[in-house]
Amino acid sequence: MSARLQIDVFFDFICPWCLIGKRQLERARALLLSQQPEVQVIVQWHGVQLLPHMPVGGQPFAEFYSHRLGSAEAVSQRQAQVKQAAEAVGVDIDFSRIATMPNTADAHRLLERASQLGSPAQRDALLERFYGAYFQQGKDLGCRQTLLAIAQDCGFEAAAVEDCLRGDGQAFVGNGAGAASGVPCFQFDGRLTVVGAQPAEALLGAMHEALLESARERQPA
What we know:
The chain has about 220 residues and is an alpha+beta fold. It has helices spanning about 15-35, 60-70, 70-90, 105-115, 120-135, 145-155, 160, 200-220; strands at about 5-10, 40-45, 60, 100, 185-190, 190-195.
């Protein structure tokens, strides 16, 4: 009988480490399937709104980080660190194009609706488009028109998703309890948890350990 591995990922769109962690997970998953092609891997994405009190219209990106980190020099150092980590996994992040730190509540509601209506491939395409729109094109993920356009590009009818774009600043409440220690957070079969944009090898090790524990449980007493 084929083994099954469920991976629950807790993330936010505005967190560059979540995008970096996504790439590390993709690499780890490919490594696992090259070693154990019989394993069925199921990935569930759980949105976590890191800034639930962000104004509906967002906040100027530079102002937000200057206030958070204390100085332009600290912001520059942090962005350089992130860009280096991103480039190492093949991700291009262009901070110079990001004008707004958005309220991501509607983006999370949209992805949740897409996960209910569409195929896993459509959901994954939408997630990838959101990340690209924000970190590479500098688009505002709090903008209703931007979100609808991306959804339609991924094959979703506007009429099927537009009601979840409330635009009222109401916080997104999802299954975020698993991310108490921060995002990105990866849970493997509900047994093992890895927090942060860890190397693919660390995620692969957690996958192997979760599969071994599951196999032990299936063995007759």
